[in-house]
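Hey, I'm writing a tutorial for new members on how sequence and structure tokens pair up, and I'd like a real worked example in the thread rather than a made-up one. If someone can provide the structure for the chain below, I'll link this post from the tutorial.
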Amino acid sequence: MLELTRRFVAPHRVEVWEAFRTQLVIGRREGYRIWDLDGHELLDLHLNGGTFNLGHRNPELVRALIDATSELDIGNHHFASPARAELAQQLARLTPGELTYSVFCASGAEAIDVAIKTARHATGRRKLVGLAAGFHGRTGLAGAVGEDTAARYFLSESQDALAVPFGDLDAIETQLRREDVAAVIIETVPATYGFPVVPDGYLQGLRALCDRHGSLYIADEVQTGLGRSGSLWAVEPHGVAPDVLVTGKGLSGGLYPIAAAVISSGNAGWLHEYGWGHVSTFGGSELGCRVASKVLEITTRPAVQANVAQLISSFQSGLASLRQRQEYLTEVRQTGLIIGLRVDHADGAVYMQQELYKLGVWAIASGFDQSVLQFKPGLLMDARTAGEVLDRLEQALGRAKDVNRPVPRRHRAAADSRR
């Protein structure tokens, strides 16, 4: 399988994972456990960015998909559909503020593109403010805002995309006071940057600045939404409502690709004027909508919310205790079940990734800060498995603390020559 992948799919990825010493070809998968083709079992603490919030092949979601195939297919994106309309109604009910209209897409990055186009039409402005270490996907508009190495590599960078540090309201205000910014787009908890905790007052200040200067606030909740923070959306505890909220990954249940840009009624003018302003053949597939509706129903169940609250408490106390015993663990960044673990080495999270892999846990270093391990328990994880994860994490910390070796880069030097 690796040779076929090297020859026909993604040769450089195969090389990089070999260099990282965590080559993985997934075979069987069930709940929060995966097995490679040789039978090596791993507890999944990566979840593909939250795609598998409810576990791999969740039986209820599998049943929803099978039941949908008895009467539906992807449908036709040109026309009204009960599955799409009912899912959109759910999202309007479950999202904060005046978010009303859903534009369905096949990926989170596509939905970010929709959010940006919406902001530009609503404001008549072009410029965008994002985080210097923000990641919103690799498509055209999404790839150019935030950390834009890949956009520059493909000559797709944009002079309209402005970057600011995370947590710096003054830097945002400096850009917004020019009155030419269409939107500020921010992952509520920046994932690829290592899940830094949102500073007190930051999102409230951002909302106020956008209101003052006529810019829209786009909340990228592709990774942080759908219960991961302890609330359905990570913006909710901050008491702010964005103008556009983007959801994806976990909305699919890991079974059928679907994402959505949920747009406030006051900024959805193009949907009243230009019904084909964005078209996506596979966006809002009727099969995907049925799965997503079930995802929302499961995620909002009181029993699931209670389990999430218990897991948050267990990991909070367990990680605090672990940090006292293991000096190599220098910082625990926890927003519910969105957790970043910083260790005492610039590349230490890569070493942790490698040691955990040997111990039967799959977790991944943050792409923009390799001292931070992304650590993402699933919403339905049981207490026994949570304890098992913490035990293996402690072993990995003990093993990784004395490691100091070069780590591979995720792109070749040629990528840097195009700056």
